[in-house]
Amino acid sequence: MLAPVNVSLDSLNLVTLAPMLIPILGALLILIVEVSKANLHKTLYVMLSLLFLALDLGAVLESAGVFAANGTLLGVFDVMLIDGLAILAQIIIVGASLLFIPLALTHSRFHEFSYPEFFALFLFMISGFQFMVASDNLILIFVGLETASLALYTIIAMHNRDKSFEAAVKYFTMGALSAGFFSFGAMVFYALTGSVEINQISAVLSANHYADMGYVLVGTVFMLGAIGFKVSLIPFHTWAPDVYEGSSAAMAGYMSIVPKIAAFIVAIRFFEFLIHSGVVWLEIALYASVVITMTAANMWALVQNDVKRMLAYSSISHAGFVMAAVLIGTTQSNSALFLYWMLFAFTNLGSFSMLWISRQKHLPEHQPSDHTYDKFAGMIKTSPMAAVVMGLFMLSLAGIPPFALFWGKIYLISSAVTAGYTILALIMALNSAIAAYYYLKLIVYMFMKEPVMGNDGQVYISNSTISLQVIIGIASIGTIFAIIALNPILEFITSFVYNSGY
After folding, report:
1. Are 447 and 372 in contact (CB under 8 A)?
2. Most CB contacts within 10 A, which of 102, 244, 424, 444?
């Protein structure tokens, strides 16, 4: 008879679980409040969401302090992993969520914010992404991936416009394929190594000198496909622009940031040990995927007539740009990934949020889409401040100095040069120059064309709400003044990445 095993709470190290439990508790509280007393003012749910996200961020920062003092933390039977990558990713996830949720105060214009379930699902989604980045256990990563994805499918459908259900179904299909690829790839590596821990998989494969290279190839292809769907690498991007188009503008901006940083962390943990072990074909496959994603997405963005779809393809190109950091696999490139994505979070969420200003509930017959370039024509005359802010975001996305994303691009390109990827660095620089054309195209429309009048004799641009103005203002400040805090932010990021061994 086996003796019972006593497990103490101290040995579980539950502090590693605290950041994920907080949004779950917040979601459950929102559901309980709604069941107990229905039809409460929805501002209550916005405030509750902000409160639990603030608590979540506090718990993440507390974990950062513990990590700085004691190094990597393992907890809950060693399936939870709190290292520098997990902490930095969670800061981006929760920080972007804190920027996004106040936009729900515009619920009078966007009916999905009228449902308490929206906020509960949103918090469940945050928890799922946090589980993804705070573990190297493939099973827990899969659970986090599915928790976040299932919530996100529903949130997209709740927008309830003509293309929203189509977008939700397409995103569900992409997510199902991603889940299938991930589970099959994990199964292959478990069969090879007898473990679902990425560190253990790395150790076993290295000890065996990659004797079963054919099976490693099969498993890696499936894992690359799974992550490719999540970050919209070509050819796994197919329906991504349609999903962005069917979502609300701000949700599309949010989706371009948070799900992708979670997938980037999984990619760093999984692919970099294979690349460093000299698996040449993986390096070639990633190299080709990065170059094709950057270039093809830019080409498609050039020919778009809808600003929202242009920004969607732009986001795919940026994801390919940042995926280069995983290919390079140095401490500098991994630090550049986080710096780039922090700056991108401000700029891209602000850009998509600006589209809310011109949203129309019912499109006139002559107007093919909700965000045509014509709607922004002459914006400097109809909404001068909005034109200046949107222009600022476009200049930053284009990488024009001294705006925020320029510094992220420079640091990432320099990491490629330092690591010997000179040709890749040139391709990245060339793609940045190509992208500048379609960003500047929108600026030309806003500043150099006459306003286009609708059939009712009114210009397209409408006034924004206070909450929208505040969030766009914060994004603008982050975009302009990032240069002031660039060195301390970079030192903070590099210390966490270096101490994590990446």
Report:
1. no
2. 244
